[in-house]
Write a structure and sequence with these properties.
Length: 139
């Protein structure tokens, strides 16, 4: 069991904290919309920022074990983390539309709705992991 943990620790923790990040996003959104009557667009933006901050801290500390503490390095890490999340968020928004071919005169791939959404979600998780591992928290 220790060998499996040692070999897959990073991936397991990435998925665990990713799930917790999603849960936090939903909970903050629900609290803001239902408990505080915040506009849904504002609530979604606030929930996203809080979730990305949580993801940054957990990825830095537990998943990728980045030990950089100097101000310049921290600013670079958090800036590149948010930039990567904005990029992957844009892919999340336009990806299913492109895969389904909605609004295009010629469908690119013609993939059904939920399958397109699932495909894009998997791609986004992988991209976020690779951005974090290779660029943001590189050793």
């Amino acid at each position: 069991m220790k060998g499996v943990w040692k070999k897959y620790r990073e991936g397991i923790l990435y998925l665990l904290f990713g799930g917790l990040t999603t849960l936090l996003n939903w909970l903050v959104y629900a609290l803001l919309v239902t408990g505080l009557s915040v506009d849904i667009t504002a609530a979604n933006a606030i929930a996203w920022v809080i979730a990305v901050l949580f993801a940054f801290v957990t990825n830095k500390r537990y998943v990728f074990r980045s030990e950089k503490t100097e101000k310049k390095a921290l600013i670079r890490e958090i800036g590149s983390f948010f930039a990567a999340r904005v990029l992957s968020g844009m892919i999340e928004v336009v990806g299913p539309t492109l895969l389904m071919g909605i609004g295009l005169s010629q469908p690119l791939f013609g993939i059904p709705g939920f399958l397109a959404k699932l495909t894009v979600s998997v791609v986004v998780v992988l991209l976020n992991y690779l951005f974090s591992k290779w660029f943001i928290f590189k050793k």
